[in-house]
Design a protein that fits this description.
Layout lengths: L3 H12 L3 H9 L9 E5 L15 E7 L5 E10 L7 H16 L3 E6 L3 H7 L3 E2 L6 E2 L2 E3 L10 H6 L1 H11 L5 H12 L4 H14 L2 H10 L9 H37 L6 H9 L3 H11 L7 H4 L4
Helix pairs in contact: 1-6, 4-11, 6-7, 6-8, 7-8, 7-9, 8-10, 10-11, 10-12
Length: 303
Amino acid sequence: MPSVTHEALVELFKNRPTLAAEMLHDALGHPVPTFTEARVESSDLTEIVPSDRRADVVVVLLVGEQQQQPAMAIVVEVQLGVDPDKPYVWPVYVTQTRARHRCPTGLLVVTIDAAMARWSARPIDTGHPGWTLTPLVLGPQGVPVVTDAEQAKAAPEVAVLSAMAHGQSEAAEAIGLAFLAAADELDEERRAVYGDLVLSSLNAAARRKLEAMMKGGYEFQSEFARSYVAKGVEKGREQGRLEGILEAKARDVLAILEARGLEVPAEVRERVLASTDIDELDRWIRCAAVISDARELLATTGS
């Protein structure tokens, strides 16, 4: 089941259909055609074969005033953890979206984790000559740090995305203040959800400062964000402990390889550090003690 963080990011792209194009062009420098409208389309990509193929968001950029025609489609996928199925289904999402809308189609992967950004950006060799799909990845480094009130007013979804990506940094307070300046211009529903998400994403010091400015203890306004915070509090300690275990085991794998004098290629190092599977890491620890080439490590899982 998708996490609340996953659903929050998906909602940002649904609520602001131009956001995918803006991030492709402004954050990633990818060319985007001139368009008159951006429209969220059905993300159900199931065809004849009965299987669940549903992208997170599909945005179609349209051109023309009266008879609008698709100029480009963007498949948006939010990725928060390693999923070995994605290199196989992402090309399907792109080709089926391209066939449905009869226009050039790109894949935009969104993540707020740097390790996942590196994992998601790996080229996907489809096996067909000349067809390698390289996902366009918006990671935390590509998300703009929105500290300007006018910028937040013009693009509140970008401001929320900025808080989710950079809310634990030194810029957290400035990000929060910029969003607060823009919050009054939002409709009631978005103000409640976005405000809660921003505060939930900020570090403790920045959140205390903003709560004090709101005069009194802040109570979360939306069911969506109350769930977000409640789950975060409940799972925070457990998640922190799990992440510590995963990192320690990943470091053990690399330490064994290096202690044996084996060269560790960048792709192997990144894959090991990105793993969220304790059983996989335990298997790699055992393998690291006997293999003769670090690349053999990934071959043990078919990665």
